[in-house]
Amino acid sequence: MASSFPSFEKTIQFLWLCFFISNLLDLAHADPPYSVCSNNSNYSANSTFQNNLEILMSSIRSNASVSKLYYTSTGNDLDRIYAQYMCINYITHDSCSTCITAASQDIMQVCPGDKEAVVWEELCQLRYSNQSFLGHLDVSGNIAKDNQKDVENPEQFGLVVNETLSDLTKQVAFNASANMYATRQAAFTNTETLYALMQCSTDLSPDDCNTCLRVAMENISSCCDASRGGRVLSRSCYLRYELYAFYEGANESSKSPVPGKSSRRKTWIIIILTAAAAVLVVVILGSLIYYHAMRNGIKKWKKQNTRLDRNCHGIGHPNNNDFQLQNFQRDGLNDGESAFMDLESIYAATGNFSDSNLLGQGGFGPVYKGKLSDGKEVAVKRLSAWSDQGTDEFTNEVMLIMKLQHKNLVKLLGLCVDGDEKLLVYEFMPNRSLDVFLFG
Ligand SMILES: *[C@@H]1O[C@H](CO)[C@@H](O)[C@H](O)[C@H]1NC(C)=O
Ligand SMILES: *[C@@H]1O[C@H](CO)[C@@H](O)[C@H](O)[C@H]1NC(C)=O
Ligand SMILES: *[C@@H]1O[C@H](CO)[C@@H](O)[C@H](O)[C@H]1NC(C)=O
Ligand SMILES: *[C@@H]1O[C@H](CO)[C@@H](O)[C@H](O)[C@H]1NC(C)=O
Ligand SMILES: *[C@@H]1O[C@H](CO)[C@@H](O)[C@H](O)[C@H]1NC(C)=O
Ligand SMILES: *[C@@H]1O[C@H](CO)[C@@H](O)[C@H](O)[C@H]1NC(C)=O
Ligand SMILES: *[C@@H]1O[C@H](CO)[C@@H](O)[C@H](O)[C@H]1NC(C)=O
Ligand SMILES: *[C@@H]1O[C@H](CO)[C@@H](O)[C@H](O)[C@H]1NC(C)=O
Ligand SMILES: CC(=O)N[C@H]1CO[C@H](CO)[C@@H](O)[C@@H]1O
């Protein structure tokens, strides 16, 4: 009988799972950065080279809000470093700055110790090298990516793409007033429009820009023949085309834009969120029925089974083998340092909820200050004794906190459900208003 009603513990675990799923969805967006490392030259930790590289990256970050393409260098002799970034021309200075800030952090991580590296984010590129590359064409390490969805009539599409890209190449490379950037729209079928964009690094000569874009077009024909779209990320130029208006300032035709990769993702997100919501509703209803059944006289059954396992969850503890909890840690929602909490240690931390540790009395119960055995200070909210009201409040609060949990808010470190005892364990922040703990 017990197994036919989901327990409160199960409810909470499902809630964790739902939250975990919503995190996964964010991860699914994390395609970039794309990177190329040279692998053939290393610098060592704490070397002058590394120091120069960090100086260079910070100077680049400060420049990114004022210009969309920038070349710079620093250091002497063997420790000299050259760096350049390029934002896709249509994005704003703010977006460029955000993109480059991310790139400058990623580039230190994707090619650790490498004296030469390039990173492509969604809308910008950043590279550095121990050799000057200003004005040098470089198509090594081109990355070609298709739009994962096939076009229905690839031959016809290929012709339109070829014609449009060739046209665009001439404009970008040889029309000085284009400043090495241009976009084009071309009718494909009655209902679909091709949108294309090309950009060269402006330090290239027109001929080198032309060469770069021609190579990129070859790369496209070998990667993306049947695809609805494609792009080439090169050190020296950028090419992209789609059957939807992916760049700012495109003439959005009244014809319905064709869904690409991102809207397929959106569909998936909606499906998964709906499923998660359905599971959530079922589980919450199930547990409500369970508690009402208990209240309405299944007291005998309750007496035999009432003792839920001593069930505390520390979030982010390395030895915690709960699948979803470990993922909280991996997702960086928690610092991974919080100690695992069991009921005994929380009793000990708060001196058995002694009055001297009482921080205040909230609507749903008192809040105590506690010190875990590892010295970490926590605030423990002890929810009012057993009642349906309290159970609902607890569910609501946990759900609310899970929705809101964010680096800048007070962290929920763990929670306990043990019979009538319902505890929420927060990180203690001495300078925070007590209200934060009391009302979430
Ligand atoms: C550098 O090494 C990574 C993995 O270690 C490899 O994927 C990549 O192809 C290498 N790059 C070059 C240019 O050899
Ligand atoms: C860049 O580093 C590599 C490997 O350390 C070295 O062979 C090459 O000469 C360096 N280039 C310059 C211009 O210093
Ligand atoms: C660079 O370091 C990696 C490991 O960090 C090593 O495998 C590689 O051989 C090193 N390359 C050179 C040229 O020293
Ligand atoms: C680099 O410096 C940091 C602190 O300045 C130090 O902790 C680290 O051990 C150093 N690493 C090496 C390889 O010297
Ligand atoms: C498009 O151009 C590439 C070379 O730039 C060529 O290989 C490919 O066959 C062309 N595609 C069509 C459909 O003409
Ligand atoms: C060069 O580009 C400008 C717009 O950037 C356009 O108005 C002009 O017609 C182009 N010239 C040629 C010869 O295509
Ligand atoms: C792009 O084309 C160049 C020149 O044909 C080739 O060397 C390179 O391997 C190609 N890269 C990709 C990703 O197709
Ligand atoms: C955008 O559409 C308007 C009319 O709808 C047209 O006059 C204009 O030339 C188009 N611009 C481009 C870049 O296609
Ligand atoms: C173009 C531009 O803004 N350049 C600036 C980049 O940053 C350095 C200092 O970090 C300034 O000196 C440049 O003027």
TrEMBL record:
Residues 353-440 form the Protein kinase domain. It is an enzyme of class 2 (transferase). It catalyses: L-seryl-[protein] + ATP = O-phospho-L-seryl-[protein] + ADP + H(+); L-threonyl-[protein] + ATP = O-phospho-L-threonyl-[protein] + ADP + H(+). The chain crosses the membrane at residues 268-293. Residues 31-133, 139-246 form the Gnk2-homologous domain. Keywords: ATP-binding, Disulfide bond, Glycoprotein, Kinase, Membrane, Nucleotide-binding, Receptor, Repeat, Serine/threonine-protein kinase, Signal, Transferase, Transmembrane, Transmembrane helix. The keyword Cell division does not apply. Its EC number is 2.7.11.1. Residues 1-30 form the signal peptide. GO terms for molecular function: ATP binding; protein serine/threonine kinase activity. InterPro entries: CR_Ser/Thr_kinase (IPR052059), GNK2 (IPR002902), GNK2_sf (IPR038408), Kinase-like_dom_sf (IPR011009), Prot_kinase_dom (IPR000719), Ser-Thr/Tyr_kinase_cat_dom (IPR001245). This is non-specific serine/threonine protein kinase. It comes from Populus alba x Populus x berolinensis.
